[in-house]
Records
---
Amino acid sequence: MKSILLSLLLTAALAYAIPQEINFQGQLNSAAGTPLDTVVFVTFRIYDVNSGGTSLWSEVFPFVVVTDGLFNVRLGHAAGLPDLFSGDRWIGITVGSDTEMAPRQKFTAVSHAYRVGTVDGASGGTISGKLNVGEFNTNSGIAANVHGRYNQAPGDFSVVAGGGGGLLGDGNTASGSYSAVVGGSGNDATGGYSVVNGGYDNSASSQFSSISGGNANVAADTHAAVVNGFHNFARGDYSFIANGGGPALGDSNSASGKHAFIGNGAKNRASGAFSFIGNGGNEGLSGDGGNTTTGEYSTVLNGQACNATALMSFVGTGVYNDARAAYASVVSGYDNQNDGTYCTIVGGYDNSIVSTANKSLLGAGQWNNVGGDYSGVVVGYENAANGEKCAVICGDDNTADGFNSFVGGGEENDATGSNTFVGGGYFNGAVNGGGIVAGSYGFAGDNAGLVSGFRNRAQGLRSFVGGGSWNHANGEYSAIAGGGNGSDVDSNYVTGLASFIGAGLRNGITGNYSSIAGGATNLADGPYSFIGAGFSNVTSGTDACVPGGYNNTASGNQSLATGYSATASHAQSFVWSSGSTATASSAANSVTMRAPNGFRFFTTTGAVGAQLTAGATAWSVLSDSTMKMDRRRVDTRGVLDKLATMNVDTWRYKHQPGGPLHMGPMAQDLHAAFGLGDDNVTISTIDADGVLFAATQELAKQNAQKDKLIGDLEARVKQLEQIILQFGNEHNSNSQ
């Protein structure tokens, strides 16, 4: 019996490539204990028991050289060792035809360092303690887990799920208790329960802070969060930044107020508690260029260099806009300043509401000013509303200083008395209580009627003429905004109750509650009727309308006519006409249109749509190859086969009982067969045409194949006929 001394050595392995072999060294002696010099046949087997059982692996070495009793082999050199070392293992050795040597030798811990390089599948399990996957990682925290490269998890129960980089400085660090870094590079989660999901060089340094991604973002207070962007700083409790910032530190957004929010942009600062910045801020402006919200619950939605500095103040957008009083608002514009409590500036340029104002409004324009309580300037240039409850609607250099005073528009008009009114015009003055004036160089005393324009008459109860000449507002509560001309024959007139003419000449309204916006020689005779503009238009039906055009008539109730010589004489009819031919309605509740050069309908912001060209009787739809994408060849045989089995019925629409009969497939069947169109309840003509084109192509192919087959058969028939004829001739010749 031979004896053997064993030594198992695991070959050295790099961290990224574990070898599939184990180096085995031994000493083989004779039964007398003398070292042998020979060549032997040796079989090695690996078991999971120390005796008996079935081997898990075996390998035969037919020529093992033994010198002075010593030999060396590499187990697994032929095909590599499988992953066997998940438990205790023993090696059994058989020399030649001898029985296996006993006892088997147990693998020591060094062999158990040999593990499988990859896992194709696993049924699950539990890893207790720490987990470190990758290289150059450290996980010094209690139950800390780390993946990736150059990552650190010193926080108790912390996790780095992946990421890191090629250099030590690119690693992620989860140093806060229960903190986590999901991926990315150079990220730090130093606060307890903090999270960084990815990105580069981000830091979540306070409890429950989080950063979703981006670059060089910081969440530095409790429950602070940054979603994305570059150089964003969420420094207030529960503060939030969604995106934005920029590559330079000066482009950063900062939400330092408690519950402050920044949605996007650059150079924005939300320092007020519960303040909000939606977007904006920019480079290239003098100063910082960013938006700021320093007041509690203050808001800047967008813009550049806008500031909301007081409680509940608001800036919508624009540049250099400031809302500096409690509940003050600037909606838009440039360099507007609002110092009035509960006041609003809608837009414009360099407008201001001063601190003496309360609950006032400035709409738009330039260099307008509001100084009175409950007052306002809507639009215009260098207008001022300094009295209490006064207003300037528009114009240039108008002033409303009196209590309850009003200037509608114009230039250099003054409403200085209480309850005075200037509708418009030039150099008008309403200096006493209750005065009303408009026009040019007008003046109104106490409780005066309307004076406006040139030779205008406002004779109806509480009627109004805003401007123009030779206009007559004779109906009660009627109004003429302007128009007329140099003589009475060009005048506009209103006799209907509560009716209105905007401008133009020779326009007339006899119907009640009717309107003409402008134009010439138009007549609104029907009640509640409307003419927008144009020439020689008539609305004689109730609720009738002519938006504009020439020589149009809407005489049907609730009818509409527009364009050129259109007549809507039926109730609820609509006629649109162009060209030189008159067009009239033919029935109630109908639409009639004429366009000699065609119709075009666009269904997107591009050129997609349909058109009816001049003289055409059918619609043309866009089918330009340069406007199409996702083009694929069609299986025409499949299309034809599906059409061959599809039901084609005659039918009527349910909402038209006894109506016209139609023929065609059901939209559900066509959609199920080909998946075309937007839904399964409509059929687009372009899709139907495409299906028919494909089926026609397939029929053409099949017909061509049949034509070829028929041609071949005809040729063969001719050959047979020639053979038969030749045979007959030869037979007749032999008979003779």
Note: Confidence is low (pLDDT under 50) at residues 3-17, 110-119.
---
Amino acid sequence: MLITLLLGSLSPTPARGQFNGDFRIQRHRLADENFLDWKAYQLPLDWRLEWELARNAMRASVGSLSEERFYQGVELKLAKPLGRYAAIGYAQRQVSFFRPEPLLQEVELRVGEAFNASIFGWTQHVKSDGSLGAAVSYRTPDAPVFLRLSHLDQYALFNQRSEGDDVFSPIPTVERVQFRWFAADGLHVQGDLRSEPPSRLKEALPAASRTYSGKEGELLVLWQSPGGWTAGFEVFADQEQRGYAPGPGTAGAAAAQTLRLSWLDVFWRQRLSPVDVASVGWLDSRFTNTIDSATPADSYRFRLFTTQGYGEWEHTQSDWLRWRYTLQVGHVHLFESTGGVRNDEELADELQAKVGVGIALVEPASYTVLFNTTWDIDIIDKKQWDGGNIQLVLFF
């Protein structure tokens, strides 16, 4: 059973799953091989750790999920000290996997030295759609030891400045705890807890009520040995709940949705020589979408469960050139049903396998760019090339 701890996103950038006023109940789904794709498109561990401890940096990964959709993950963080006791920060985040996500922008003004207080906001062109919050923290987001507690009011001015008679009651809020403890050698722990308590939008015309609540979390634990090996695990869980209730005289049926996305990744990384590093791991991933409607034909259930083992080998050819080779083998279960049928139809129960070959261009403390391609070997008689992927980390 996949662990469903609610321990949140890895970086001090905006929360991964911004609500953004999206009350829509939709039939989101994934293809059978998408969790293998997702794993292939994640940044290597050492790149991620460099990103976490950088003050000004950008990371991105774009890769094919299907003939219609891309996986897209882009994050930017900038910070500038204003003297000794103040700083201003800016961050962007957009990560799209099972649905397109909006670009989230956060601006923060921080005051203090070891202990800090700050105000921050999620900026929007329309003032009534903006969000405003406050935080207290220990150290700065790029420090090896970091703790931040924050509260955010989303749509803070909506009820006062929006056009029309729609109102939030209560307005959406985000409570968040971020933490990091990186030792020079040894145990590294980093995580986040995010909670969005239930909020309600009351629509005047046509009369209806829409609700939303969410929780998300991620925890990364590493142990780095002076002997050259690293062992660790990462656990992530996200849950979103939406509801719709029509008012008197309004057409439509009441409906409720629960979305869940989670994974557990356990890995071992070993330096084999001054120029070779190998990794092996086990990843259990799950995505479910349940829609219950008062109109049975509108009900929907989707389940994708994937368990995969993987191996990675990185060879450094020169100061600026590295080769990466990957192998993934996974077992996929996919179920889907519509129209209120409780017995899900099994659409996939199969083994899948991919190999990947990539070339990375590296300039220490400046950039790392990986050009990666994957190949399906489980259906090599029907289709060989699976897709391409570009990953990069830039330091400013």
Note: The chain has one domain: 34-395.
---
Amino acid sequence: MKEQLNAYDRASCHGAVKTQAFLRDNFLDYWELNMWLHSSPDANCLDYSIQARPEKTVCATSQRIVHSLEASVKKKLTKLESNYIVKVCKEFRPCIEAIIITQGSHID
């Protein structure tokens, strides 16, 4: 089976009993609802750091065609400095460790 990733965003359909049962039964690395740290910049370096940098410039102008938008995003992502990506990833682990210590509570 192809690798799958489900990004749970608290949509009601994601929390439905049938949806949860299907995911639990069909995916080996399934995370229960209480495992998700929803909308947490502390626990999501991709969305809140790496993706945000090119998004600022790409979304500054309106894109009418999806292919144009996709091309702009890909171009900006390939131009991200590797030292920036390394820095973000290094800062990510201590945040996750702090979240584990506080049992999912807010961290500063």
Note: The chain has five helices and no strands.
